[in-house]
Amino acid sequence: MVTVQIQGSLVQFDLLWPIIRCEKHLKARDTDIILATLPKSGTTWLKALTFSIVNRSRYPLGENPLLTSNPHALIPFLERNIYRDSEKTLTWISFRIRELFRLTSIISCFRVLSQNLNAVSYIYIGTPWIYSFSLWDFKNLISTRGSMSLDEFLEAYCEGTHDYGPFWEHVLGYWNAHLENPDHVLFLKYEDLKKDINFNVKVIAGFIGYPFSLEEEKTGVIDKIVKLCSFDKLKSLEVNKVGSMDASLKNKYFFRKG
Predict the structure, then answer these.
(1) Smallest Cα–Cα separation from 164: which of 44, 249, 43?
(2) pTM for the predicted model, two decimal places
(3) Position 115 pLDDT exceeds 80
(4) 3-class secondary structure for the chain?
(5) Are β-strands 185-189 and 120-125 bridged in parallel, bridged antiparallel, or unpaired?
(6) How far is Cα 228 from Cα 66, in angstroms, rounded to an integer?
(7) HSE-up of 11 (CA within 13 Å, CB side)?
(8) Any idea where the Sulfotransferase domain is (predicted)?
(9) pLDDT of res. 171
(10) What is the CATH number of the domain that holds 185?
(11) Residue 27 belongs to what domain range?
(12) Predicted pLDDT at 56
């Protein structure tokens, strides 16, 4: 796969113009919510949790669209979906223009978003070692050009020549943005989410303007959201067993352990 550098980050060549369009045309509103993660750092989990938090008064848990749709279908990527081509961009904007909030995600480095700090953005990042193995496994699953050995991938990872790398530059971009503007950039760690998911769900909800009421806490709404969005629950759903995002990207690939 041919890669090019933009804003100090390496990206696949076919994403160059979508990223440029995103950087040039994205006009964020103060009610927008943008999830920022590197690939395979818990993105699917974060999307499921955030969608459920925001939409809990709109859909009873038993009717949550997560039961019939993959989290990536419910929260599109800016560069991979919305700005992929002009037709998709116009369709998304016209569909969302009257909604109070727009919930999207991005993989690119923070510099792509730096002109839109009025948007609510947050990132959580996994342990580099865990992230590297997870991404290597995922890339080999979806590759049409044969598998890459672990040694080859780790060499590229350590040299910062992997997709959206260098890793630490990507992380530092969002970390520094959080330090400079903590009201608009929430920085979470994957390990902290795993350690105390209920507490961090409350943190996320409060940060994006959808705090839980005392009544919701007493009636176990947080517990129900956490259970619905758990790895085992999402993996067990029919849509994530047989569905697909496109011809080469099956939904089940997002729910492999490791």
Answers:
(1) 43
(2) 0.83
(3) no
(4) CCEEEECCEEEEHHHHHHHHHHHHHCCCCCCCEEEECCCCCCHHHHHHHHHHHHCCCCCCHHHCHHHCCCHHHHCCEHHHHHCCCHHHHHHHHHHHCCCCCCEEEECCCHHHCCCCCCCEEEEEECCHHHHHHHHHHHHHHHCCCCCCCHHHHHHHHHHCCCCCCCHHHHHHHHHHHHHHCCCCEEEEEHHHHHHCHHHHHHHHHHHCCCCCCHHHHHCCHHHHHHHHCCHHHHHHCCHHHHCECCCCCEHHHHHCCC
(5) parallel
(6) 8
(7) 22
(8) 30-258
(9) 85
(10) 3.40.50.300
(11) 3-255
(12) 96
In this structure, of 98-112, 172-186, 208-222, the range with the lowest mean pLDDT score is 98-112
Number of domains forming the structure of the chain: 1
Share of the chain above pLDDT 90, in %: 31
Decide which of 104 and 164 is more confident: 104
Residue 257 has which token pair? 């352990």
Residue 222 confidence (pLDDT) above 80: yes
